[in-house]
Each structure stands twice: as structure tokens, then as C-alpha cells.
């Protein structure tokens, strides 16, 4: 069974004037267990809308989303999210940022500190546990955000243009880093990008979207050897 399934999903945004924009139109797609799927498409094709629906931040106006075979109704810690901007809390250390979701759920950060340290080590941030976010580069901050998304050991990791705010060199480093994390932990990933290189580098399969309205035009298996 797929982990995530979009079934005939549509999304209409109604503007203040009452004008309706169809952002998504009949999206049928799925992400299988241990699969790394890239959602690739131009700006405005509905990638972020699809991510927000999968994260239960907004509700689709038509169709349904199934997560582990059941309709997805509310945000769940079983889905980890990484956004374009890391949005760390500037007054908290790196470790305390990673542990923030644990606190939010009313659980004990102390019991999870070791797990947080392991994640930071995995992304090459050993030794930065007590650093403050402002002391880190953009790429390092994004890696902290990835650890924060993984702290609950989610079944599905969703990343919406996680490298958008980074320069080309950092993007490349982070891409390889992510690939390593994924292959070490066998996470199921849904990765959103408008960069063909990024999309192919990391994916088992690429879903290509077109805009106005947002549709999935192709599902392409990637058979290239990994770097
Ligand atoms: P992408 O992430 O691929 O750039 P988006 O999901 O952001 O695409 O947007 C898809 C379409 O929906 C675009 O035409 C965009 O203008 C429109 N849209 C997105 N968010 C809103 C909103 N809150 N209200 C109205 N229209 C929106
Ligand atoms: P604590 O009270 O220290 O937070 P728990 O006994 O609540 O510990 O959690 C044990 C393990 O179960 C943790 O490693 C955590 O990752 C996982 N876990 C707890 N709640 C959830 C949840 N809602 N979704 C996914 N995993 C969870």
C-alpha cells in the first residue's frame, strides 16, 4: 500500500472579489513506502498548495488524501515537514530547536536529547549542539530544520524547495547530504522542487506538473546510478 495517496484532488482559491482560481485539477498520485518522489514543476503549478494539503494546513476543495490508507484529517507527527526557510527560533540553541516539536507535543525533551544529538551528527553538525542559529550558515540552519523534522521519526518526510534560499554550492552539498540521510534511514520522501537537476539527483521517481490549472503530466522513474 502507498504511504500517501492523492485521489482526484482539486483546489479552488476564491479571491476577495469572488473570482475563483483553480490551483489543482484532478491530481492522482501516490508515494510508496521507502520511495523518494520528486514533485517537479514551474512556479505557480500548485506544488506548495499540494504540500499544504498533505500537511493538513489547508483543505482541498475536492478529492481526498489518504495517509497510510486512511483519510488525512489533521496534522500528524508521522509526517515531517521542511520548508523553504528553516525558520529556527533565534533565542534557542541548535539542540533546543531540534527538540522543539517534542516540547510542543508535551513530551520530555531530556528523554529525546540523545536522539537529537544523533540526528545532528548524521547531518554533520556534531559540536554545534549549543550554538545559536545566528552563528550558523544558511545551509547549516536548513540541516537543523531537517533534524527537527526527523525528531519524531516520521514515516514520511516532505520537503518544499528546501534549498530555495541557498546558493548553488550549498545546494549541491545539502543535496548529497540529504541523499545520505535518506539512504541511511530509509525514509519515504516527497520532495518539491523546480530544479530538474535536484529532482533527478535525489529521486526514484519524478512527478512532472504543469500549470494553469495544476496537473500531473507525467510520472517518470529515474534509473540513473546515484552519485
Ligand atoms: P507553486 O508552489 O508551484 O509555485 P502554488 O501552490 O503556490 O504553486 O500556487 C498555485 C496557484 O494557486 C497559483 O496560480 C497561485 O497564484 C494560486 N494561489 C496560491 N495560493 C493562493 C491563495 N492563498 N489565494 C489565491 N490563490 C492562490
Ligand atoms: P516522551 O514522553 O519522552 O516524549 P514517549 O513515550 O511519549 O516519550 O515517546 C516514545 C517514542 O515514541 C518517542 O521516541 C517518539 O519519537 C515516539 N512518539 C511519541 N509520540 C508520537 C507521535 N504522536 N507520533 C509519532 N511518534 C511518536
TrEMBL record:
Molecular function GO terms recorded: ATP binding; ATP hydrolysis activity
Keyword Chloroplast: no
UniProtKB keywords: ATP-binding, Nucleotide-binding, Transport
Superkingdom field: Bacteria
Occurrences of domain ABC transporter (ranges): 4-227
Similarity remark: Belongs to the ABC transporter superfamily.
Protein name (Swiss-Prot/TrEMBL): ABC transporter ATP-binding protein
Amino acid at each position: 500500500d502507498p504511504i500517501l495517496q492523492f485521489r482526484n484532488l482539486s483546489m479552488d482559491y476564491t479571491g476577495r472579489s469572488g473570482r475563483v482560481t483553480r490551483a489543482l485539477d484532478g491530481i492522482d498520485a501516490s508515494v510508496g513506502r521507502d520511495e523518494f518522489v520528486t514533485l517537479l514543476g514551474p512556479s505557480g503549478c500548485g506544488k506548495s498548495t499540494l504540500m499544504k494539503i498533505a500537511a493538513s494546513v489547508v483543505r482541498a476543495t475536492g478529492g481526498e488524501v489518504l495517509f497510510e490508507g486512511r483519510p488525512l484529517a489533521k496534522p500528524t507527527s508521522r509526517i515531517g515537514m521542511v520548508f523553504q526557510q528553516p525558520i529556527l527560533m533565534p533565542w534557542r540553541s541548535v539542540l533546543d530547536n531540534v527538540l522543539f516539536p517534542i516540547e510542543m507535543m508535551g513530551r520530555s525533551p531530556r528523554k529525546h536529547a540523545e536522539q537529537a544529538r544523533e540526528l545532528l551528527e548524521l547531518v554533520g553538525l556534531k559540536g554545534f549542539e549549543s550554538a545559536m542559529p545566528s552563528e550558523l550558515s544558511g545551509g547549516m540552519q536548513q540541516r537543523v530544520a531537517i533534524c527537527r523534522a526527523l525528531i519524531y521519526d516520521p514515516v514520511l518526510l516532505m520537503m518544499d524547495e528546501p534549498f530555495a534560499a541557498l546558493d548553488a554550492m550549498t545546494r549541491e552539498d545539502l543535496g548529497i547530504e540529504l541523499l545520505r540521510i535518506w539512504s541511511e534511514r530509509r525514509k519515504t520522501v516527497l520532495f518539491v522542487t523546480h530544479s530538474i537537476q535536484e529532482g533527478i539527483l535525489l529521486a526514484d521517481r519524478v512527478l512532472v506538473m504543469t500549470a494553469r490549472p495544476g496537473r500531473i503530466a507525467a510520472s517518470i522513474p529515474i534509473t540513473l546510478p546515484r552519485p
